[in-house]
C-alpha cells in the first residue's frame, strides 16, 4: 500500500508540474502577441507539451514495473535469449547437416560413375584400294648366222605390271597405350621375269612399315610355301622368291603381300617361261636378252645402274656403249657379271652422263643389242661452294639441243647433232 501511495503522489506532482508549464507558455504567448499566419498550421510545439505527450503515450503502452517485477522480467528475457540461442544452434546444425548430406550424395554419385565401366563405341572400318599399272617395253636386236645367211630380228616385248594396294583400317577405343602403326608400302616393287625352261627365275621386293610387315608370296592367288623348289628368303625389309627350275606351266602371275596391323599392300608381276631355242651353227645358241636394260632418271651425284640378263652359248663378249662409243671401265664406270646378269654402274653421276646406253652381246652364232636412256638431273640450287673466282665472261657449258634418237636401215650413214653453249668454248 505504501508503494502504491508513493507512486500516486509521484504522478500527481508530475501532472501539476506539467499544468504549470502549460500555463506559463500560454501567458508568454499572450504577452508577446504572437499569432499564427492565416493559411498556415502551427507545426512546432512546446518542449514541456512534447514531453507530456511522450510520457502519456508511454504510459498507455507500458505500465511502470515494480522492483519485484523487474527481476522476473529479467529472468524471462534471459530465458528467451537462451531459447533463441538454442534455436539458432539447432538451425545452424540442420543447415550443416543438409550441406554434408548434399556433399555426400555428390561424392557417392561420382564414385558410382567411376565404378560403372562405360561401353566403348562400336569399331569403325575404312578401306583404301589403289591400283597402279606400269608398262615396260624391252627392245633388242638379234643377229643370227646360219651358214651363209645372216638373220636379223628386231624384238619388242611389252611387259605390263599391275601393282595393287589394299589397306583396311579398323578404329576402336581401347584402354592403355597403343603404339602407332604405319601401313606397309613397297619401296621396290616386283618386276616381270622372263626365263627359259629349266632355268632359274627370281622375284624381289623391298618394303617398309611399322611394325615390320610380314611377307607372303602367291601364284595366281595360291600361297607359296618355302620348299627346295620355291625358296623364300626374307630379311629386314627385303624378300626374295627363287624358283629353282621353271617349266612352261609355271608361267603366270606372281604376287607379294605385305601385312601388319596398320593395313595390307600387294604387288604382282608376270613370269614368262620360253622354250629353249635350237642350237645354231655348230650347236651354238646365239645370245638373247631375257631382261633388257631399263631407262633411269637419277639426281646428280647418285648411282646409276643398268642390268641386262643374257642367255646364249658361252663364251659371250658383252660390252656397253655410250652414244655409240664403247665404254672403258674406270673409277666411275664399273661393269659386273653375276649369274648371266650383266651390270653397268655409273658412280657419282654428273649431268654429262645423260646419254643413250647400249648393251651388246656377241658369240660365234650371232649378237644381240638393247638400249636404255639415262637422264641425270642437275643438282638443286644450294649455297655455292668455295671456288676460285671466275672472270665475268666465263659461262658454264649448257646443252641447248640434246641428241635425239635415230632409226636408220643397216648400212646407211647416221648423223647426230647437238648444240652446246658456254664460255670459253
UniProtKB/TrEMBL annotation:
PROSITE patterns attached to this UniProt entry: IG_LIKE (PS50835)
Coiled coil location: none
A Pfam family it matches: I-set
Residues of the Ig-like domain: 183-272, 287-377
Region (Disordered) location: 98-127, 381-407
Superkingdom to which the source organism belongs: Eukaryota
Protein's name according to its UniProt entry: Ig-like domain-containing protein
Organism per entry: Homalodisca liturata
